[in-house]
Amino acid sequence: MSTPLLSTRLAFRCTIITGSSSGLGRAIALAFAANGASPIICADLRPDPRGDWGVDEPGVLTHDLINKRYGEGKAEFVKADATVGDDVERVVSKAVEVGGRLDVRVNSRSVFLGCKYAIRQFLSQPLHPSGHRGWIINTASMLGLVGLKPSAGAYCASKGAVVLLTKQIAVEYGIDKIHCNALCPGCKFQGFPHINHLSSVCFPYICMCK
């Protein structure tokens, strides 16, 4: 290990992070690794980042960067389409294969399918030593909570659905020790220049449900 951990608060938490090759997904993967999570399954359509604006060590793939910083075997890339149920299920199976169980699912893509297969796995496994069965983190948006002009109706509706689904899962599965929260970030610079101009008018939210 060439880089010291920030903490061990996520030590030995087997984690799936979708959309992990770029942007927010990559940042989340690196943050989880810095706090001890392992193994981390980096799931995306391709391993290389889309653009290099703000990307830490853009020449290094996310899973390779985690292994470089924190030790071999800490992360693994799995090619998957988060909108295809069979792919989502396969990623969960891979996590269980390498980690023995699934502890955390971060959904940056296709939240519904990600929640569906994570919950099914959580319900099939014993409680974590901490007394909990699993954690789901959904990526929504501040536009799931407020509107924005012009012409953001479809986007606001889709992200509002993510927020409400998150709340429903937290209410329905809390008794099973399954926790579900949503991140509601403002606009951020990524590999998508056509939306970066919005960054000056947006601000972050976090939706804490359970």
Q: What would you note in describing this structure?
A:
This protein has 210 residues and is α/β, with parallel strands linked by helices. It is 34% helix and 16% strand. It contains five helices and seven strands, in the order βαβαβαβαβαββ. Strands 3-2-1-4-5-6-7 form a seven-stranded mixed beta sheet, with helices on both faces. Helix 1 packs parallel to helix 2 (62-70) and helix 3 (85-99) crosses helix 4. The radius of gyration is 17 Å and the shape is globular. It starts with 14 loop residues before the first strand and ends with a strand.
Structure classification? alpha/beta
Binned, the helix content reads 25-40%
The major sheet is characterized as: 7 strands, mixed
How many beta-strand runs?
A: 7
Q: Give the spatial strand order of the biggest sheet.
A: 3-2-1-4-5-6-7
Radius of gyration: 17 Å
Contiguous runs where pLDDT drops below 50 for at least 5 residues: 192-206
Please state the average pLDDT score: 87
Number of helices: 5
End-to-end separation in angstroms reads 34 Å
- Summarize the helix and strand pattern as letters: EHEHEHEHEHEE
- Estimate the global geometry from the Cα principal axes: globular
- Note the beta-strand portion: 15-25%
* Oligomerization category of the chains in this entry: single chain
